[in-house]
Input
Amino acid sequence: MSLNNTPSSERVHIGIFGKTNSGKSSLINAITNQNIAIVSDIQGTTTDPVYKAMELLPLGPVTIIDTAGLDDNTELGMLRTQKTKEVLRKTDIALLVTDAKNELSECEKELINLFKENKINYIIVHNKSDLNSNIQADSSANEIYVSALTGENINELKELIAISLKEEKHKTPLVSDLINKYDNVILVTPIDSAAPKGRIILPQQQVLRELLEIGAITTVVREFELEQALKSFKNRPKLVITDSQAFKQVSSQTPDDIMLTSFSILFARYKGVLKTAVKGISKLLSLNDGDRILISEGCTHHRQCDDIGTVKLPRWIKEYTGKTFNYEFSSGSGFPTDLSPYKLIIHCGGCMLKEKEVLYRYKKAEKSLIPITNYGITIAHINNILERSLKIFPDIHSIIKNGD
Output
């Protein structure tokens, strides 16, 4: 991924839903003014969800998701329907594309209920309005008549999407609310065999960008350069942020009067799951030999010989607990439907996942009464520095200090 590209997790995701042959693909082409979706009269042309990242005025960077029709009752159609419903976990705004000549079907009404259940803003887009001269093409807050063929009301639809998105809550910042202009901050970014060649990883990019935007004085070093960097400062740094894998070494080198945390912990707060993750790790020592732990990553990548998820974490956990657990692993969109076999879930920081997807996974675990935490919190905990790593978040730090 180029440094100049907006990451997928930060793009507005627009999901296009509807029955087969309602004109979903034609609408995508009309909205984007590009032939990016296959248009055909053959039912079921769109199979798996198709993702297309692009710039769309007046919205900016977006990801358009073209989904399969939800009225295919074949066995294959059922699988496509399940994949389409999974898209809801990534969707910021949903467009329900209907045929303007027809009343809403039961399938379409079911979709609307799913949007409401998942608290997703949605717009009902009555397509093919050019085929019925009796249609009143007035738009409302979440309903509009358009023609993908003639372009009627397509610009109005874009404006309606933009208005709906303004209602979305702004996220908690990654770090800018913790740091003031001209504060010294050190980022510790190890470069090892797992680091992408020629670039730093996404969490480090995003934190660095936010620090630059607020005018913090930011220094980036590797873990074995930290000690020398600390000696070079006239004014002591306010905060050190480290890759979690180097937590132990960085903590030993960072004076106690300097705040310390990790990129993974910052992302847990950014995605809205930090409190749950901190509570989840408290269950680790109560597990028994043979219990099953799920280690889940939001991205897919080539596994290295000393991979953090599949190798380092299980090794460090065994060293800390003295127990042998059974581990299972998931990556990308492959999060298990049934969580009941697991006694603990350890998730990555979720930098590649939409906030809604991360929240879905954490809420699913909570509903299943399965404790869930993340990599950074786990590593801090087993190195006995979790309390220190949370001091910069007073409300969360009290959970550890007071045993809440």
